[in-house]
## 1
Amino acid sequence: MRIVLAGLATSHPYTDARTLTRHGELVVWEPDPERLRRFTDEHPAAKVAGSLAEALATGPDGVVLTVPNPQVPEALARVLETGVACFVNKPAAASRAQLDALDRLAIHERVLSGSVLRFAPAFAGTRIDPGEVLAVRATVRHDVGLWADGYNAWQDTPGEGGGTMVTMGVHGVELLVALLGPDVRLVGAAGAKRHYQGLRSEDTGVMALRWGSGVTGTVEILGVSEGESYAVTVHRRDGSDTIVIESGDDPLKGLGYEGTIDAFLSMVRGAPSPVPWEQTRAILEVLVAAREVA
């Protein structure tokens, strides 16, 4: 099995590679020499390609795509031409122009994108009866202090990577859509800088959502946090249940990275994406709308 890691724009493909290297040959393309060196130091057996076209010409069985958001539509179009399974590290779009560009692509059933938390053991397999639900809430705790010092500035730029509202908010929206489905719309959003004044975006945010069924939802984003954790609370008439997702002793498993790669490898072997693009498109619409409002 040959897997192409197309781009190393965030920390995620480095994490993905630690699981993928157990399953096949890795081919990597990344234009930034420092990022590429960091990767090859950890994976010296990986084949290095000089361009995306060269990487795709190696005949991969699957592609993990992680490039800055403005580059996703064009890069994904090149991957789609190969017909192979593709995992696009989150989020696939962070602005209206990027989402419009994705909408013009013929995205097939073996394309997966979204938050790895969907596949976390604490959450995967969770089912609820929407008829019993009054409201839902997702709380995202993930510190964004690195951005305040200029690291990966494109992620913190609202018109490029979407800032905290999008890049961290995707985790909360993903979990709620996984529970209640894609018939959802944004009804309000706000963000603020409470601690990291050097940011281009915000370090805290909130979104209000409403499903077609009438269920309301809230996504809280706390980008100032000493620890990383995620929670989903489901409110019913007789009480509330909360699911907490934490890294535990094995972050790759606890946060859903291994589960995501398992899903991707199933796609490589021919299975459709376990997350229909309809859901991913709904999540991206909420995130883009929140960025526009905030």
## 2
Amino acid sequence: MEDVDLNVVVKWSGREFVIQYGPNDTVFDLKNFIYTQTKVKPERQKLLNLKFKGKTPEETCNLSSLKLKSGFKIMMMGSLEEEIEKVNSEPEGMPEVVNDLDIEDEEVAIENQEIYLAKIEKRIKEYEVKILNEFRPNKKLLVLDIDYTLFDHRSSAETGNELMRPYLHEFLTSAYEDYEIVIWSATSMKWIEEKMRLLGVSTHGSYKIAFYLDSSAMISVHIPKYGVLDVKPLGVIWGKFPQFSPKNTIMFDDIRRNFLMNPKNGLKIRPFRLAHLNRSTDTELLKLAQYLKILAENCDDFSSVNHRHWETYKPKRKRYH
């Protein structure tokens, strides 16, 4: 019987690559096959969920000993040489490059247009939400993006922890006291699940995630100045779970256009990039944990607050009669 080539699916930089290998190939051979398709050098590649007896396998390890099923999904971190050179040679003082559009709320007023409300109704009816943990009474709602919000998904690293935004678990533990937590990423559900597993979010003992939403829960809108954009309408959640509304919901995302349908409920978080350089100084999540606590304890309507000024927000004193 002839040996049959097997294959794995490598996820890198938002794309998927089908990599074929033979039963006698090693991890080093696999990295070279990956290099052929991605041009990421083997020494730059970090195959995060490739394990042998619970540990990262040596490059000499035979792939057959890993007992991979054909089609096994591998998440790879790694940078192209030209990208690394560009980062290393980037002059200081340059403005931050963000994968976003300079969209001001006053430029776009689309949240009440009937065509988009109809799309939201379609999502409410057809999109299936898998509840991971039951809701608790009287909790607010926090909706979180993943890439560049909780996780630097493009830098190279040996483990998911090295790409995790500092204080992530402390932040989620604090938020969970007052909020149900939802993860909404513009990727597929399988990769959301994989990232949450790599970061230790899905199995953490101090907090629980209510549910995940993926790209198929988003809708497309047309902005004359920018064309067609995919956005995350919170109305999908509100339509499915009426206990949540503009009054008790806040969304964090590093891309402002994602909350074009709900501009008063979105907070644009500073993107977490170049994890190897910024891990020791990034305290964004610690500060935001305090902001969420202040909102939960003092604000009756989240949509009445300008979240762009969250760092200087001071709640109005409640009057007691």
## 3
Amino acid sequence: MRRLSRKKALNLVKELDAFPKVPESYVETTASGGTVSLIAFSVMALLTTLEFFVYRDTWMKYEYEVDKDFSSKLRINIDITVAMKCQHVGADILDLAETMITSNGLQYEPCCVLQTCYLLSRTLLLIQNRLREEHALQEVLYKTVLKGGPTALPPREDASLEPLNACRIHGHVYVNKVAGNFHITVGKPIHHPRGHAHIAAFVTHETYNFSHRIDHLSFGEEIPGIINPLDGTEKITNNNNQMFQYFITVVPTRLHTYKISADTHQFAVTERERVINHAAGSHGVSGIFVKYDTSSLMVTVREQHMPLWQFLVRLCGIIGGIFSTTGMLHGFVGFCFDVVCCRFKLGAYRPREVSPARCV
């Protein structure tokens, strides 16, 4: 009884076979079929290789939501060199709530105007130009973030024979998450209950020179390896009454890659510069003004990878699709060739007329 049940089960399984085996004696091979098979195998190998590279690659997914964190502080990282002596310039921040943020976190370091790393500065400018032309490069920068990578110029060397006629202002400050104005102008800032003032009485007008280089300017947590829009920016002027303005929109950003996770801020910037001439109606104060405003939206950037099951499904689709497509094309081409060259060829398959037999 057990043997009969096993035979019945085996026969049932054989009836469900979707891949029937054809004896080799019934199979006929042709040169055209072999050529099509070689082409199919080559195409399958090429597409499988390309699909493997797609599987190894990653992409960035952007998600947008309302920023509900309004009580925390915003960190501003600054590294700017101004072509004036440190005792002649002052930097501070005044936000929209008329709160004056003292620059206690900033350091004033005398340096030389020519004392800079030209190679890194030119590299940063080249990357900025590429970012303006090709926005997809930002994803490459996100995916190649490395801990411990440089974000700003290396420390200045003290052994310089050039006069220290410039000032490097660097450090970080914490401000409220509202619109504000970070500025560098003539004179040291002072606290005044009725307004905002800089002491510039002892600085002669001939020493005004706001040519500057922005080595690093970012918002939020400092992420090594990320290139910011103003990094490497250099402005040179020969006019003493020059005003440089940078209008920045800051967007909170959460970055999650396979190498790092951090809360940082992206920003977009527009620039403007003009000469202060009160007689011509161009009013203002000479200096460097960075006016920033925070966005109400937050961007979450996640690095994603194709799952293994999806790669296998796509691979099966490639192999099965090529087999089916090449088989149908081979059959269709063979049918057309048979019809054109054999069926309608005059006299090729015309049946011979048999004459009737005569009786003798």
## 4
Amino acid sequence: MAVGTVLITGGTGYIGSFTSLALLEHGYEVVIVDSLYNSSKISLDRIELLCGKRPIFYEVDVTDEAGLDKVFEAHPKLDSVIHFAALKAVGESAENPLEYYRINVGGTISLLRIMQKHSVHNIVFSSSATVYGDVTRFPNMIPIPEHCPIGPTNPYGRTKSTIELVIEDFINAQRNNVKKAGKPFEHWNGALLRYFNPGGSHPSGILGEDPLGVPFNLLPLLGQVATGQREKLLVYGDDYPSRDGTAIRDYIHVVDLAKGHLAALNHLREKNPGVRAWNLGSGRGCTVFEMIAAFSKAAGKQLKYEVVERRAGDVLDLTANPTRANEELNWKTELTLENACEDLWRWVSNNPQGYRQDPPAALLEAVKKSRAA
């Protein structure tokens, strides 16, 4: 019997697919809704290859309240939601902020309304370290703790911080309303997971990030340079007050990140904390030049780059203080930056067309052998 039934919005995407896999491996039944705007249904096949179980899938946009309603009706045992579905490019959000608010904030409101209608009580939200903005404006806030004041510097980050407030207000209202009615209220809970820079792929080399169009994150861009799909990496600024002039980020292996979502979900269901924010990061900062060097080593060749002007909204340092998640969720990163680079290279070198090609037979055979063992 399943531990529980969880709806995952955006579950065919990069982090969503890895989290779906982690939940299936730990006994949950997984129902995915995804518009497939920036993802592929092929990820469902890869998840099934890896764990022998297949998520239930519906092609539904998170802003489609009627469509969501039908999914919830079809799965009366749903007790929790993990919410990934969102547009996620900082630069694009500055060019088209209304679309970001419509989908990210509006979609979340639609989701919460349907959760309320069907009495689904727990939500784990895929937030972002971008909600903190430029933390150098405060003393002693790097690495960044959860009590750091919120102050995003771009529309994408502002949609994330707005959603956090919406979820907090919603969960607190549900608790208060149920409490006034003299009924148990502790089962309404929300986790706000502020994570830093996900990277890497599954160690098997058959599940990874397959961005449609231009990637917006450093590691998949480096992957495209390494496979020859892109001539060079653009480095946005080398005049930051860092050890080599480039911006500092906290990179977390996507497998560790997926385990963080599992830990947060279990914590909500077991501890009933109300609404709580947790940073998911390694606590170790890495500059852009250091990341280029690490991925060049994994790929066995020096990757080309060009320094250009800084992007609007970029900040010097986003490094996590993950102590709260370490202590309260009993979670910490186990994989290194080197692991992330090696696993990503295995993915892109074997699957240069992502999910638009079959994985090499040798990788599939290795997966089958590991499952048989």
